[in-house]
Structures are given as C-alpha cells and as structure tokens.
Automatic annotation (TrEMBL):
Signal peptide segment: 1-22
InterPro entries xrefs: GH (IPR017853)
Keyword presence, Signal: yes
Protein's organism: Chitinophaga rupis
Name the UniProt record assigns to this protein: Uncharacterized protein
Keyword field: Signal
Length: 339
C-alpha cells in the first residue's frame, strides 16, 4: 500500500513527472566538477577583496563555493558576511556591484577555477527559523508573508532568488547545507526548479543518511553532481566510504576538511587539521573509497586567519606557511597527494 500511495503523492505534486520526464541539460550547461575536484568554501568573500579572489584563481583549486547565504522571512537573501544589507531584494540583485565583478573574475584570465557554487546555509539547533524553514513552507502553495510568492513557478520568490544567482552572479550550482529541517520533498521541488534554471544542485551533509538518499532518489538524474561530506565538527567521525555505501550513488563524494585557523585558533578546535593531518586522512579515505576524486577545505576565511594569526610561529605543528599563497599551496598539496 505504501508504494502506490507515494507514487500518487509524487504525481500530484509534480515531482514524479519532473524526475522521469524533465529535459536533459542542453548546450551551454553549467560547469561540472573537474576530474580532480579541489573545492574551497568561500566565507569572508562578500564583497571581499581583489587580493582574495586573485589568491583563489592562482590556488590550484577548481571549485569555489561562495558561502554562506541565508534566506529571511521577507524573501530577501543575505550573505553571512553582511547581516544588514541584502544581496537580493524583491527578486532583484541589490548587493555590492564589485562583488559581481570579483565572482566573474574567478573564471577569467589565468585561473584554476572552473566552477562556482553558492551555499544556502540553514539554522543550527536552537536558532530562529531560517533558510530551510522557509524553503519547506514556500515550496508548497501555502500562505506566506506579504511580498512572498509561494511555490516554485516563475513568479515565485524562490525562483526569483535562484534566477538572480544564475543570471547576475553566474553560479553553476546551488549547494544544500540543511542541518536541522530535513524536509526532502521541499528540497526535491527546489532542485527541480534549479534544474529548469540550468543549474546543478549539490549536497553538503554531515548526518542523516536517509534524508540525503531521499533527495538523491527523488531528483532528476544529473541534477545533483557532487556531494560534499563534512568531516569536522558534528561530522568529525565521517569518512566518505560509508556515505558511498549508504547513498548507493555514482555521484562523486568529496570529504571536506576544516583547516587550522578555524574559529580563530591555530589549535585543533572542532577537528580542524594541519596540511600533514589532512594528507594522512586523505590516504586513509582513499583506501576505503578508491573512487574518490577530490576533496575540499572549509573555508577561505580560516586560511586568511591562519596567516594573520601567524600560526606557523605560534604553533609550528599546525603548518609552516606564512603567506596565504603558501598556505593554499600546502592545503592543495595535502589533498592531491592523498589521492
């Protein structure tokens, strides 16, 4: 009885038809992850500085995930780097114009960056409602505050936010970092809409195998093209092998590490690791998941903090780099040598 009921529910919601019959991606598609995909999460980059973006271009990393961005109750989108001024208001870009130029520059000229994503971050436990609470409510045709249009059609608030991210910011994918709401149906609906805008969707889990598998199973093939597993803080015990087994997917799974400098310390808080420690973990992960083709670092803000705090002097076991260029090179080396 459960399977027919689920099929009926999906047909009514329109999800089943999207999964089975949605068009394939066409010419001019968003960039896929590189064959060896090295990812840097980009907190502290809005509006950022030219030097930070130049460091990223010359880093050898291939994907930048702009992070973190939050939807608020009135339908505005904010950067975690600026809690006072929205970047999207009433379906239009109203953020810093210099940021758009810097993001565009990531793929221009001499650069290793081939792909740009943007991360939707939700609330943690005991925080007020945030991004994924609103996605859960608005993805359905339900009531909403004045100025918010529910659903995922072309006039909806969610559609307009994502369209601006595609057209104005130029992102290739939207990264889902839901850590509290866990409503798969609304994310499947959001993903179907993202696909219609000719973007990919990626996942950034740290727990709840079944939730993320539900999204994978309910989404159109090819929409989700990367999974970034958090291997720090709440996900400190994570390794990619079990995620590969539980998710039973061919979508590449990339471990994400917290580098030293995180939480304004050179020490190992929240399972942050030195380049040598990251390399050792990569070697261990590769043995259990031979198909692993990349990994990433959370986040650029911590790379900068590591150098500003002179961690190489304060705590030599945290690494030897004294410049941002050198620390990025050390982190890249730790990831690639582990592969």
């Amino acid at each position: 009885m459960k399977l027919p009921l689920l099929t009926f529910t999906l047909l009514v919601s329109g999800i089943f038809s999207n999964v089975c019959f949605a068009r394939p991606f066409a010419a001019g598609d968003p960039a896929s992850p590189a064959a060896t995909n090295l990812t840097m999460f980009g907190r502290d980059t809005y509006p950022g500085e030219d030097s930070t973006y130049e460091h990223l271009k010359q880093s050898g990393f291939t994907t930048v995930i702009l992070s973190s961005f939050y939807i608020r109750s009135n339908g505005d989108l904010y950067s975690g780097d600026d809690s006072k001024n929205p970047i999207i208001h009433d379906g239009k870009y109203v953020g810093d114009p210099e940021w758009l130029k810097r993001v565009a520059s990531l793929k221009q000229g001499k650069t290793s960056i081939t792909r740009i994503e943007i991360l939707f971050e939700g609330r943690w436990y005991n925080q007020p409602p945030n991004t994924y609470d609103y996605i859960r409510t608005w993805a359905n045709d339900s009531t909403a505050p004045a100025g918010v249009v529910t659903g995922t059609g072309a006039n909806s608030t969610l559609y307009k936010i994502c369209k601006v991210l595609k057209d104005a910011v130029g992102v290739d994918a939207i990264c889902i970092d839901d850590e509290s709401v866990y409503d798969a149906i609304s994310i499947i609906r959001l993903g179907s809409m993202i696909g219609k805008l000719n973007m990919h969707m990626t996942l950034c889990p740290y727990t709840k195998f079944s939730y993320w598998k539900g999204i994978l199973d309910g989404s159109k093939k090819g929409l989700i093209d990367a999974i970034y597993v958090q291997c720090y803080d709440g996900g400190a015990r994570n390794t990619p092998g079990p995620w590969k087994t539980h998710l039973a997917t061919n979508v590449p799974i990339y471990p994400i590490f917290l580098c030293r400098g995180a939480f304004s310390t050179c020490a190992t808080d929240h399972n942050s690791k030195s380049p040598d420690e990251i390399k050792a973990e990569m070697i261990r992960f590769k043995k259990e998941y031979p198909g692993m083709t990349g990994a990433g670092i959370w986040q650029m803000a911590d790379v900068n903090k590591y150098v500003k705090m002179d961690c190489a002097t304060q705590m030599p076991e945290s690494g030897k780099a004294t410049t941002v260029t050198d620390f990025l090179a050390d982190l890249k080396k730790s990831l690639t040598e582990g592969l």
